[in-house]
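Section 5.1 Outputs to date
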Amino acid sequence: MGKECYSVIGNFMNSSTAWPVSLICLLIAFYLGFQYTVSKNDASRSEKWSHVRGVIDLVGMTKKIGRGGIYNYSPHVAYHFKYKHKVYYGHVIAFPDPQNFSEEGAQAFRLKYPEGRQVSIYFDPNSPTNSCLQSGDSGNFDSYLWGAIGLAAVSVILLFVRAEEGESASTSYLTPS
């Protein structure tokens, strides 16, 4: 009985189920790669943006439990600035937005951007609704890039490993003992 159970579990991902799972992994990898590219492009463009003085309207932190029971903090902000006699509002901190601060990092962020403080706001003069508090690369691109690479690798492994095993792997649990 134990032998048949291992055979069924081992062959769960047969060739007819491997390709849809592989396709889903590949689609998610493309999405993460796209997000990486967009954020990297936005970070690069923001280095050339103009800046004006603006005001921090709201600062918040999302607190969630991470690995090993340690809390991680992700900041959220709202700010406004004036450009050509018009007021614009924004909420982007950087490209990509920072996340998973330690408690000390969250406190440092709150001290740097307290509500009511005047700060430099970087914005696209051609489209002032595109703005951020920190121009350039924030250094938080690794998760997008490694996620895309990892899922693409899983996708390829699923397809090629199951293709090599062929029909014998998918039919072995159907053979009576």
